[in-house]
Structure formats: C-alpha cells, structure tokens
Amino acid sequence: MSLIQLISFPPLGDDRGSLVALESQQSIPFDIKRVYYIFGTQQGVARGFHAHRQLKQVAVCVTGRCRMVLDDGEFREEVWLDSATKGIFIEDMVWHEMHDFSDDCVLLVLANQLYDESDYIRDYTNFKELASD
Ligand code: TYD
C-alpha cells in the first residue's frame, strides 16, 4: 500500500459556495479527539520532523497549500496538500514533514488522541531504529 493515503472530502456545495463536513468513522477513519491548525507559517519554515508512536491524524489544507513528506523508515513519498477537499491520513509510526507553506496556508489536523509529548519520536535516527523493529 502506498504511504500516501489521500481522502477525498465531498464538497456539499450549492450556489452560495462550498461546505465540507468531517465526521468520526466516516470520512475520518477514527474517532476524532483533538483538532488543531497551523497557520501564519513564516516563509522558508518547515514543520513536523517527527513521528508518533500511536497517534493517527488526518491533515487538510483548508486554505493555501503545503508539501507533505511521509517516511516509514524505508520509503519517502511526498504530496502537495492544496485543496480543502483533499485530506491525507498519517498513520502512527510515520515520520512527517511539512514544507513550502504558502503565506495563506491553514493546515487543519484531526487527531485520535489528546496531545501527549511522550508519544512523539523527534529524532530521525531513533525513528529509523524503532521502525525497523
Ligand atoms: P509541534 O508538535 O512541535 O509542532 P509541529 O507540527 O511543527 O511539529 O508543536 C508545537 C508546540 O505546540 C509544542 O510546544 C507542543 C504544542 N502543542 C500542543 O500543546 N498541543 C497540540 O495539540 C500540538 C499539536 C502541539
């Protein structure tokens, strides 16, 4: 299976504009426990550079774009998040980096757990070791 698992969110549009609804165990493949968003990212800044031991997430650029890099310790793939109707599923034990944020980018992230720093793996060498176990 590809590392890049994109999810299409059907827009519920009418002549007033568009609307996307995200629901647990429907378009989002888990129970949503936390929502956060990244915005105002300075030019040239890249974020992420970590994996999670257990956390699963879906990310979508609701405005603007950024380039998402995923790495499972063996393969590295990337994709542009550039649509409010395109999400990416980031499974546990997948290293992720976000690059090339547009000035207007708002990256919305849905997660299946509350914030827990001990769930982070922030060292790439450590991640590679754990991923190969
Ligand atoms: P961090 O995970 O380092 O952001 P990035 O996506 O760039 O890797 O988070 C930045 C800061 O925000 C850090 O101090 C942890 C804090 N934080 C929370 O308190 N709650 C959260 O849900 C998230 C994602 C981060």
Automatic annotation (TrEMBL):
Residues 4-130 form the Sugar 3,4-ketoisomerase QdtA cupin domain. InterPro entries: QdtA_cupin_dom (IPR008894), RmlC-like_jellyroll (IPR014710), RmlC_Cupin_sf (IPR011051). It holds the Pfam family FdtA. This is FdtA/QdtA family cupin domain-containing protein. It comes from Marinomonas transparens.
